[in-house]
Amino acid sequence: MTTTAESPDTGSAAAPRAHCIADSAGGVTFDVTGAGRPGAALVLRRRGTDPGPDVLLPLTPSAKGLLRAVLPSTVDMAEGVWDAYLRFGEGAEQRLEPGTRDLRALVDREPGPDADRVAARIPYPGRSGELIVRSWLRRPHAETGTIRVEEDAVTVHGRLYGAGLATGATVEARLRGGAGRVHRVPATAEGDGFAFTLAYAPLAEGLDAKEWLWDLWLVNGPGAPAVRLARILDDVPLKQVIFVYPGSRVGAGVVRPYYTGANDLSVRVDAARG
Description:
By secondary structure, the protein is mainly β. The protein has 1 helix and 23 strands.
């Protein structure tokens, strides 16, 4: 996996760019070129109908022609997609383009055993070449690892951060929009992590739509809150275009695991053709 990347040149030479360095704790350093005028600040703004407050980062001189802003890992950024801007004075803003992105510290990242939360931030270029920061913040966090796909089941290995795996832990497959339909399988301790095997047949039984989507949650013992299974501890911001798994014909459907746009692990059942 390439972890230090040069973004495509989709804007003008005068457009401000931010060279990004991600650290293993979840922080990001931005070195901005072409800011053009003094007093600028870097603004991160979350997309959505309820974005919440902006994150405002002061820019200070770093090297010749560079202004630096630092997003510490201790800043709580809500989960989601954040757009990056330069702000000049009162209200004047300009979009930032990504420069080089050094993401080497994110490869095979492993939070410490005492971490009470997992914060992950990955800067990357959007479809129009704009700088985006994808943020996750989870307490606790169930990180997926190796996924082994067979004809009639999928076996997933993972790690739980922020809690120990309890006796009686289960994984729930919850049918999205399925009026509470749930299929449960045991999650067993394996080394310093956990594993579970999810048979496909119960997920395809009674298929009556073009597709069913099952979201996967770890329930760490009776009465414990559910933790969404996801893969966020690496340098890949959009898993669904990189990690593509084969499907298996089961009854009237084709079943395959997949990652959502938020890098959460789910299973889809598509109505089989013919």
